[in-house]
Design goal:
The protein has 219 residues and is an alpha/beta fold. It is 42% helix and 21% strand. Helix 2 runs antiparallel to helix 5 and helix 3 packs parallel to helix 4. It binds S-adenosyl-L-homocysteine, 3,4-dihydroxybenzoic acid and magnesium ion.
Length: 219
């Protein structure tokens, strides 16, 4: 059992169930050409996000942490013709690359990228229409606040997914002083006692190493 074997299995899953996708491949190539960090969701997780958003019947999706828009493309593909996605990104260059990738994907008119610290962007949102599905994948120190905003901007039934909640198992080490790990440990505490959330988390291995996601539903 090794990282190489995990990657080989991810490649098998991609070949069998995902196929090759020129738009998504071009997005990853454009990210690399612009020196973006390769921390997009894996293809298999991207497709799972799309399927979950479809299963939820999501018409209004919020993403926190755009990077080059790889996960954004997967999520926006779940939307019906009148659906909309808002994605929040602090880094101007990331947002510029994502804008290019989303244009190539033909998704520019469904997706809005808001540049700035997510906390500020979220505070300014007063949606007429609640978000049905929220994907949180930005700075891990902010995850507790992002979940609270997702609840405020959602409705009973809204799906919330938070990425990177396992971090090679670091989250069980209470002596770990990485602020991202501390932020994720606070997230578990907060979600666990929140009266309006019903949640689980799944750890996974694959081409991105050992990590996982938290899945919650607002009640
Ligand atoms: N969801 C993307 C990956 C996101 S990586 C995908 O799977 O394709 C995390 C992103 O969050 C980075 O682009 C980083 O710049 C952004 N980010 C970090 N802190 C942020 C903040 N405070 N507000 C908004 N975005 C932030
Ligand atoms: C990091 C962030 C991510 O969203 C991810 O999927 C992997 C790593 C990071 O900040 O290190
Ligand atoms: Mg992530």
């Amino acid at each position: 059992m090794s990282d190489a074997h995990w990657t080989e299995v991810d490649q098998f899953i991609e070949a069998k169930l995902l196929g090759s996708d020129a738009v998504l491949m071009a997005a990853l190539e454009n990210n690399a050409a612009n020196n973006l960090p390769p921390i997009d969701v894996s293809p298999a997780l991207g497709k799972m996000l799309m399927l979950l958003a479809q299963m939820a019947g999501a018409r209004h999706i919020l993403e926190i942490g755009t990077l080059g828009g790889y996960s954004t493309i997967w999520l926006a593909r779940a939307l019906p013709p009148d659906g909309r996605l808002l994605t929040l990104e602090v880094d101007r260059k990331h947002a510029r690359v994502a804008t290019e990738n989303l244009a190539r994907a033909g998704l520019s008119d469904k997706v809005e990228i808001k540049v700035g610290p997510a906390k500020d962007s979220l505070a300014a949102i007063q949606p007429a229409d609640p978000f049905d599905f929220v994907f949180i994948d930005a700075d891990k120190q902010g995850s507790v606040d992002y979940v609270d905003e997702a609840i405020r901007l959602g409705r009973a039934g809204t799906t919330i997914i938070v990425d990177n909640v396992v971090r090679c198992g670091a989250i069980v080490d209470d002596a770990n002083n990485d602020p991202r790990v501390a932020g994720t440990r606070r997230l578990y505490e907060h979600v666990a006692r929140h009266p309006r959330l019903n949640a689980t988390a799944m750890q996974m291995v694959g081409s991105k190493g050992w990590d996982g996601f938290l899945l919650a539903q607002v009640c």
